[in-house]
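Journal club prep — side note

Before the paper discussion, L.F. wants everyone to see what a predicted structure for a comparable chain looks like in token form. Sequence:
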Amino acid sequence: MEDKAKRLYEAAIQKLKEANDELCRPAEDVVSFMVCQNSHIAIEHYLKGFLVENGIESVTTSSVDELYEQCKALNGNFERVNLSGFECEAHHLDSRFCNGVSNVSRCFDIADSLDKFLREEKIIS
């Protein structure tokens, strides 16, 4: 399980980097959907990685909220990660929420805060 968790964390870190790279482009060149999708995948992978590392195989259809609740049950410090404002549904290509840099930056901020939290907790390095 440890190897699977490591792969999930590595994939999350890569997706967060890709989202960040997209956000660093000039605003008119940013592909909002790419930031949203990569951030969403990073969030899911961070949460699933933590669950797998703790012996819980998450169901692939679990929502981010369900994964987050499971993580909080294992480690109450997850309360420090604020998921409010996570309304994106990355798998919906026509989602209006993914339009515009200001909207998708919240998804990126959540993914980034999860990354920072996991590093502070020494779960990832």
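L.F.'s comment for the group: The longest helix spans residues 2-23. Keep this in mind when we get to the figures.
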